[in-house]
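Everyone, study these two lines:
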Amino acid sequence: MKLTLKSSIIIILLLSDNLRGQNAQLSSIQETYVDKSIPGVSLLVARGNTILHFESKGWANLEDSIPLNTDHFFPLASIGKMYCGIMIQQMIQADLLRLDAPLINYLDEAIIKQIPNGEKLSIAHLLSHTSGIPDFADDPSIFEEFQSDPEMSFARDRILTKYVFGKNPLFSAGEQFSYSNSNYEILTLIADQVLPAGHATWYSDSIFRAIGLKESFYKKETNYQPPFRFSLAQGYFDPFQQKELISATEPSLRIAKGMTGSDGIISSLSDLHLFMQGIFNTKLVDAKTLERMQNYPQKELKMSYRSYGLGLLSKEVDGLVAWGHSGALPGYTLEAYYFPSKDLYLIYALNVGIMLDIFLEEDVDTFKREIYSEVLQQY
């Protein structure tokens, strides 16, 4: 039988996956949810450097029937906040910033006056989501603009000016917790004022290259936006709740391209695992800084099992604490967590969004529960 180039590539990718660690029970769960409603499921489980399970099921591209494999890239959405948090902590270690310093030390007074609570905020308030600054993503008018304007720009300065600056604060600085993407956009605004080469260059030099990430992309990295469509898993959603998935890749990438500290990273799961190791093996920040990131006085979210440190989200599963972050875009759902008591990493990426679909949300939530339960029982 004569193989075409396309079929040869697919066979090579499938063989490559088979050489990685795989677990039959986890594979079965992945297959179940692909059969139900999720186009593709990538799952990586590791103990330290040792890969225990790394497999992809389903489709990276429904239209062209391209299978999802473990080398596909995903936009990481809010998982990007960990990268921003690490950058800020590195800058603190380098004496370029102070955690408790007021924002007026780093931003012009004219900007400070526009930021809700601006004159009373510190770097710590932004990192820990205790600033009281409204989340631009919660403004109904941004969703209306997104729906009506297919070319809507999510550029940081435009979004802050239109949807954050001049708004009333939700509460006084430090008094409550309220998750806000706006906090992390302002953090990169600060970094750009302090760093001559800008925050994106810091990402490249002090995070990506510092620990050898070769499959991670941001604003200054080659091929950030013009697709790498050949290796990017396409995203899908069901905005009309008719159980009919349509492409959400373009709007997802438009958000990722515009956002900075709150979003903006595109990566493979392999590189995301390496990044997580860089945090918890203290290659990116020292042990004292990591402890501060985890133990900074936390405010509980409405969901009692979650809390936030300084750029790290905490969750408890079956009595075990994990640190990391989750992420969501119109066409993607992801989580990346580390269980210190087990030295265990659990990272998954789904190329489907659940923001607008209650049925998909139920399937994704059940998938999460089953995966976490099975992983923690087995490992």
